[in-house]
Amino acid sequence: MIKEIYFDKRLEPYIGNLKIAVGKEKNLKFRKKKSWELNNLSKFIKYGIIKTDYGIYFKYNYKLDKAKHRTITQSEWDDNKISLFEKDFKSKRQFIRISFLFLNLVLKKFEKSNIKDKVLFSLTFVSEEYDNIFDDDNFINQVIFRMYGIRENEEMFDYKNLNNNKNSIGETICIVARN
Q: From CA 87, how far away is CA 54, in angstroms rounded?
């Protein structure tokens, strides 16, 4: 698998977490948590990724998209969104570790798949309450994972220029992978 990593310079301290977040699918099992995504995190990994005529999706939550006005990329962008909230974890450290572990396990599933497309995987760090999360990383309280196939003239955002502080999603780490 060929991987390219793009990230905002302000997230450089978090890149180390990408390398050390190792574990297995069982590390993603949580009981009686508030969010549907967290309760089903291990199932996204267990069932893997599928490529259809309608795009690239997690098998676990794949459903035929009936919205004809959306492009394949827009459908993937919306349907493959998984949000994790710090309040659902014991600590900020566990929250960050599980976020990166999930990303790593998705990348492993993709590598084992027979999907040959160029696919973008991203983690966006968000603060629900503050505009600038980089004043203090204690304000990061949500991570949004997204996955979509990269097609000509249909990118959702300019992932190659995340170092530009004017980028509206400058809190994002992206991995572009191709088998």
A: 34
Instruction: Tell me the helix, strand and coil percentages in the chain, rounded to 5.
Output: 35, 25, 40
C-alpha separations of 103 from 48, 106, 130 in Å = 13, 5, 25
Query: Tens digits of per-residue pLDDT, 152-165?
Result: 877 766 777 765 55
pTM of the model: 0.85
Q: What span, in angstroms and rounded, lies between the C-alpha atoms of 172 and 9? A: 10
Residue 58, φ and ψ in degrees, nearest 5: -70, 135
In whole angstroms, give the CA distance from residue 108 to residue 91.
26
Q: Quickly list H helices, the chain.
A: 12-20, 36-39, 41-47, 72-79, 92-112
Strand partners, 123: 145, 173
CB atoms within 10 A of CB 10: 17
Q: Are 113 and 49 in contact (CB under 8 A)?
A: yes
3-state secondary structure of 163: coil
